[in-house]
């Protein structure tokens, strides 16, 4: 499938430091120094003529693929081409997006990088380096912001904590060589235990990206970002180091953010059969949270922060100006992957450790939630490949086990300052997933039956130990009080067996159709099971809910057709899912605490379409369109209403004109053509909008290039996303998160 014409479609958290585990900063400094030393010790050599990446996923056998025409003894790598070939042969919704798709884009967030993929809805939640609203096929769409529903991986190792929660803002997408998107059941082979799917960000390596690169960009709202990277290879060894720093003041009041990311990897080919790669990484993320506005207030001035409840109870919502909500997260990662190939047999072993220190300062209604702890991952895979030319192995099996512990502290927030602690907990989680599947060729057909098993435990020990819990009874005056303390300890366990059956038919070269039926299952996270409750926009919580939630499950039927012909390329998938016990997480009408419930039955229907056409030799059109209709089914409270937070239509179209080989210009429109329900009761809606962007890139030579971008050319005022509510009590509910206004950015890149 021609990549120049197809948009890359193919488609716990916290425990106290324990003896034997070095402090996070010491660990980060040590592994960073080792990686830098390894990289500087390698001399520059001739590069492999490809974009290579380390073992991107547990299930991809490209770990042992040697580059065509590469040097003898090159370290094992995964190429973008091999990843694309495998995912295009997978009967389900998949995509590969390479770094070239993000060229000439400045201030790139996770939302910017993912909304070009059909079936993925990724919208800015607060702007900047925050955690956006992101979901695939509706999984996790109601969390504020999203913290579950997807498996997020860096080089095949999960960034999710052991309980399944994640902080997607930790990823800088510009530091990935490419990333893979697995929608729905296709993520099971990676060890996913979620309904939405998985996203794997694959780092560059010294073999695939030798030399050094420096980029600097900046623009509106105080935005500045710089990135430095370098890689080298010598014989059987290579190394790659990256560093980026970005910050911005923000479009709104109390909307600043900054992010520092360091990552490195080093690979070695031990012998003709065995190769290994080591990974280290560190991210320091911080962002201010300006909060939601009422619709009228947003339209009058979208740059303001949430002012809180107005006179007479109008505009119920949090007071960001007073409470100064903010999130600060540090995460250190170390990992390794080793692959051995013996004839037709491939063995892959991955080990990883992630340490996360996360302080989330909510408004007074929740207060501080501080989580610190580590998670260990072990992943093992075996594949049988009697036909080395086949994109998929005849048989493969994967097991992933993640275990973690965390200390969590809850404290009161008085006008942006941490005051009294009102709860402490020890959290322990483990998740095991085992997947086995065949890909049996029968003429032009490939039949792919598979079976997965998952087991998860969520154990919470309440360590508070006092008879009462302090609270703030009036945030305006600072008045305090106390409430009786009850034990919040619980132990939950979940398990499920998930079969799938898929058939893929090769219509013609580069053209396939497929159909699949699958079951998926997802257990709740600690953020679902343990919730501060009783708070209001002007008073702190009165206690906790310890919800006995069931895991959510889905049976999905899907079919698709992807291919290319002449100047056209396309990828279209349609699916229908029958869900039981969907985790519906909604804020209350006052904008205070959230609550998670199991809906009885829900239904998700969607169409995911990506395509392109080369209109002339200079003119290329691309389109991404996602249709989704997610509804309750005879629900006691909501009948057959649409589930809040999901736009029915999401359209992204781009038209690129190549002036000459060095210069291109592009126009883009993002369009949500109908209103989106803010609450499940269907009483409050976010209005339709369209945003137009333009960008251009000029490559002076092999070393220097520059780019410029204008976002939201017509300075449209719109809600990029909203809170998800059960029922809005008033039409002036503060639930809307404004998107950025008109902005101009530019950047320069030099490669040596």
From TrEMBL:
Keyword Signal found: yes
Region Disordered: start-end pairs: 304-337
Domain TonB-dependent receptor-like beta-barrel: 258-713
Localization per Swiss-Prot or TrEMBL: Cell outer membrane
Domain TonB-dependent receptor plug: 87-198
Annotated Basic and acidic residues bias: 321-331
Membrane disposition: Multi-pass membrane protein
Keywords on record: Cell outer membrane, Membrane, Receptor, Signal, TonB box, Transmembrane, Transmembrane beta strand, Transport
CDD domains: ligand_gated_channel
Sequence similarity: Belongs to the TonB-dependent receptor family.
Name the UniProt record assigns to this protein: TonB-dependent receptor
UniProt organism field: Rhodoplanes tepidamans
């Amino acid at each position: 499938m021609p990549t120049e014409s197809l948009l890359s479609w193919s488609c716990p958290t916290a425990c106290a430091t324990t003896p034997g585990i070095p402090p996070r900063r010491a660990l980060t400094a040590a592994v960073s120094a080792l990686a830098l030393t390894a990289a500087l010790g390698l001399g520059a050599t001739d590069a492999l003529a490809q974009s290579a990446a380390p073992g991107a996923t547990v299930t991809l056998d490209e770990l042992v693929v040697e580059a065509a025409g590469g040097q003898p003894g090159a370290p094992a790598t995964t190429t973008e081409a091999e990843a694309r070939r495998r995912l295009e042969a997978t009967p389900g919704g998949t995509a590969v997006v390479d770094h070239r798709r993000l060229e000439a884009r400045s201030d790139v967030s996770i939302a910017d990088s993912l909304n070009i993929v059909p079936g993925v809805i990724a919208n800015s939640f607060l702007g900047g380096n925050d955690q956006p609203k992101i979901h695939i096929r509706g999984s996790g769409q109601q969390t504020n912001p999203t913290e579950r529903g997807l498996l997020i991986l860096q080089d095949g190792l999960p960034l999710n904590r052991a309980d399944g929660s994640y902080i997607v803002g930790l990823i800088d997408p510009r530091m990935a060589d490419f990333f893979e998107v697995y929608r729905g059941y296709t993520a099971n082979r990676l060890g996913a235990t979620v309904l939405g799917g998985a996203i794997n960000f694959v780092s560059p390596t010294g073999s695939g990206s030798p030399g050094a690169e420096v980029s600097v960009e900046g623009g509106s709202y105080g935005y500045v970002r710089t990135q430095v990277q370098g890689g080298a290879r010598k014989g059987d060894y290579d190394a790659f180091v990256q560093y980026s720093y970005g910050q911005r003041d923000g479009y709104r009041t109390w909307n600043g953010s900054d992010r520092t990311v360091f990552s490195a990897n080093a690979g070695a080919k031990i012998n003709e059969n065995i190769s290994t790669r080591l990974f280290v990484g560190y991210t320091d993320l911080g962002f201010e949270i300006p909060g939601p506005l009422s619709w009228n207030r947003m339209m009058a001035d979208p740059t303001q922060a949430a002012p809180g409840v107005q006179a007479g109870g109008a505009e119920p919502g949090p007071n960001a100006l007073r409470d100064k909500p903010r999130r600060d997260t540090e995460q250190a990662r170390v990992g390794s992957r080793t692959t051995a190939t013996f004839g037709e047999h491939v063995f892959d072993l991955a080990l990883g450790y992630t340490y996360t220190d996360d302080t989330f300062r909510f408004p007074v209604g929740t207060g501080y939630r501080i989580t610190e702890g580590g998670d260990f991952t072990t992943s093992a895979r075996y594949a049988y490949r009697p036909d080395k030319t086949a994109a998929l192995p005849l048989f493969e099996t994967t097991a992933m086990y993640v275990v973690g512990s965390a200390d969590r502290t809850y404290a009161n927030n008085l006008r942006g300052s941490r005051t009294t602690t009102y709860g402490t907990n020890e959290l322990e989680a483990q998740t095991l997933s085992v997947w086995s599947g065949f890909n049996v060729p029968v003429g032009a057909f490939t039949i792919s039956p598979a079976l997965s098993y998952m087991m998860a435990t969520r154990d919470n020990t309440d360590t508070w130990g006092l008879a009462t819990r302090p609270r703030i009874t009036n945030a305006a005056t600072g008045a305090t009080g106390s409430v009786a303390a009850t034990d919040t300890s619980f132990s939950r366990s979940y398990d499920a067996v998930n079969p799938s059956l898929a058939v893929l038919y090769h219509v013609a070269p580069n053209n396939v159709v497929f159909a699949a039926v699958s079951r998926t299952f997802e257990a709740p996270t600690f953020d679902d099971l343990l919730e501060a409750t009783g708070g209001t926009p002007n008073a702190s919580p009165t206690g906790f809910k310890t919800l006995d939630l069931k895991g959510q499950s889905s049976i999905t039927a899907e079919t698709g057709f992807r291919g290319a012909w002449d100047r056209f390329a396309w990828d279209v998938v349609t699916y229908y899912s029958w869900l039981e016990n969907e985790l519906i997480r909604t804020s209350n009408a006052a904008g205070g605490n959230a609550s998670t419930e199991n809906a009885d039955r829900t239904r998700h229907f969607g169409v995911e379409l990506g395509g392109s056409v080369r209109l002339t030799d200079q003119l290329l059109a691309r389109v991404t369109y996602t249709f989704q209709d997610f509804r309750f089914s005879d629900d006691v409270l909501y009948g057959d209403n649409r589930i809040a937070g999901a736009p029915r239509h999401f359209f992204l179209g781009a038209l690129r004109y190549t002036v000459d080989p060095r210069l291109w210009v592009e126009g883009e429109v993002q369009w949500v053509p109908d209103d989106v329900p803010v609450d499940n009761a269907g009483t409050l809606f976010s209005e339709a909008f369209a945003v137009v962007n333009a960008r251009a890139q000029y490559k002076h030579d092999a070393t220097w290039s520059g780019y410029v971008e204008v976002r939201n050319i017509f300075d449209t005022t719109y809600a990029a996303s909203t809170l998800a509510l059960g029922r809005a009590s008033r039409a002036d509910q503060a639930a809307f998160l404004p998107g950025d206004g008109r902005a101009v950015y530019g950047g320069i890149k030099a490669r040596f």
